[in-house]
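Re: the pair you flagged

First of the two:
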Amino acid sequence: MKIFLVTKNPHKVREVSAVLDEFGIEVGHLPEEKYEPKEMDLRQVAEYNAKKFYEKFKKPVAVDDTGVFFRAYPEFPGNHPKLMFELIGYKGLLKLLEGEDREAEFRSVVGYCDEKGVKVFEGALKCVADTKAHDLDKDVLPYERILLVDGRSISQFSREEKNNISHRAAAFRKLGKWLTNHR
């Protein structure tokens, strides 16, 4: 079986391909920009885009949307982590967390659509925000430099280690299991 991942990010394609390979599912790439209005939550963005790109390409597609959520600020940075990072950077993010609960969570929602309709799968990764950014020279997502799992910044994990624990991998594994059992 082959599905198509809608993303502009080639790193994401490799990550998802490694996860779905566990289920014998091949991943093709559709380098398209998804629609992410601020009023939609992660689930709505994933569902909307899965339908949109299935209708456009008439191929089974998967689209994920990811957010970062600090316990101290339940909807922040929320489903627009890139925008928040671009606005206030590490200095602003870490300043906001001074003296606050530092627990955080990465969440990913995968929307999958084929001729039978849309299904949605969710994954989460519990983290703790550090007081500083790590590995500024590495090509990783900004939040991976400040969020810790088992005392290590996510930026310090190999791609294989990250795929064993990540929110995105968890959501795509749920998709892989579902496809294996229902298609």
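Second of the two:
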Amino acid sequence: MSTRWDDNQPIYWQLRERTVAAIIDGTLAEGEALPSVRQVAVDFQVNPLTVSKAYQSLVDDNLVEKRRGVGMFVRSGARRQLLESEREHFLNEEWPRLAEKIRQLGLSLEELIELERKRRRESA
């Protein structure tokens, strides 16, 4: 993982978002333990309290559970819950801006589909 931080967002939130992305893409499976607070703090050279705050936000959102003396684990159903909320966020927040930009640029659906097909062929 990259250790570059966006100065426009708190580091704890960026750590949280990296963990969310790992759950969504399956890097962190349901039932799997999250890396320890200490390990993440060392790996990313951040304060352990920052990591704890990120993990606590995941607990608060019912995505991760604490097991006393054992660690933190991805809850069953976390991936599905995240996919639903991320899709909703995309459709309600990001898509309207993208659709407007597409309209402003005069792009057609056919052009976009063809560009995506070409991109996929080139990356295969």
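The domain at 11-76 is CATH 1.10.10.10 (Arc Repressor Mutant, subunit A).

-B.
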